[in-house]
Write a structure and sequence with these properties.
The protein is mostly helical and 186 residues long. Helix content is 54%, strand content 2%. The protein contains ten helices and two strands.
C-alpha cells in the first residue's frame, strides 16, 4: 500500500496525516482549534502552522472557546508579541470573533459539532481518489458551509479553507485509496 505523499518527510506532517487528518472528531474544542489553525494557514503552508500548534494552544488556553471569546484587544496584542504564532492581526482577532460565533451556534444547535456534522448527515464522506491530484480544493458543500459561516460572522472561512477544515475534522476522508490510513483500509 502506498500512503498519501503530501506529508513528505516532515515528522509533524506525518504524525498529523497518520493520526488526525480525515479522522472524525466531534469535540467542539478540537473543532474550534482546527478552524483556527486552518484560518491561520491562509496564504501559508500547513507545515508552518503545525509547527506553531503548541504555541497556539498555550496562547489560546488550549482553544477554550469561552476563554477565547473574552480576549481583550490588549491580550490579543500580547499574544501577537509574546507567542510564536502567525503574526497577522486579522487572523489573531478572528480567534475571538470566531469563538463568539461558535458560542451562538452552541446556543442554537447544542454544539458546534452538531451544527457542522448535520451537513453530512453525521457520517463522513469517504472518497476514493487514485491520486492526490484528484482531490479538490473546494466542493459545493464547502461553498455552502462557507456561506453559512460567513452569515454567522465567522472570519477566514472561505470555501477552500472550509474544505481543508472538513478534512481536518474528518467530515471528509480524502486519503488516496491505497493509503493505509484511508477509512476503508483501517
Amino acid at each position: 500500500m502506498s500512503a498519501c505523499i503530501w506529508p513528505g518527510n516532515n515528522p509533524i506532517m506525518q504524525q498529523y496525516h497518520d493520526n488526525e487528518w480525515c479522522r472524525p472528531n466531534y469535540d467542539d474544542s478540537h473543532i474550534f482549534e482546527m478552524l483556527t489553525l486552518e484560518g491561520a494557514q491562509s496564504g501559508l503552508s500547513w507545515s508552518i502552522v503545525l509547527s506553531k500548534r503548541e504555541e497556539y494552544k498555550r496562547a489560546f488556553n488550549n482553544f477554550d472557546i469561552m476563554y477565547c471569546s473574552k480576549l481583550r484587544d490588549e491580550e490579543l496584542e500580547n499574544i501577537k508579541s509574546e507567542y510564536n504564532v502567525i503574526k497577522n492581526s486579522l487572523k489573531l482577532w478572528s480567534v475571538r470573533s470566531n469563538a463568539l460565533a461558535v458560542l451562538k451556534i452552541q446556543a442554537e444547535f447544542g454544539s458546534f459539532s452538531e451544527y457542522l456534522w448535520r451537513y453530512v448527515d453525521f457520517r463522513p464522506q469517504i472518497n476514493n481518489w487514485d491520486s492526490e491530484e484528484h482531490i479538490p480544493a473546494q466542493t459545493p458543500l464547502s461553498e455552502q458551509i462557507s456561506k453559512d459561516l460567513k452569515k454567522r460572522n465567522f472570519k477566514f472561512v472561505g470555501p477552500i479553507i472550509v474544505y481543508s477544515f472538513m478534512q481536518s475534522i474528518g467530515m471528509v476522508d480524502d486519503h488516496i485509496r491505497s493509503c493505509p490510513y484511508h477509512s476503508l483500509n483501517r
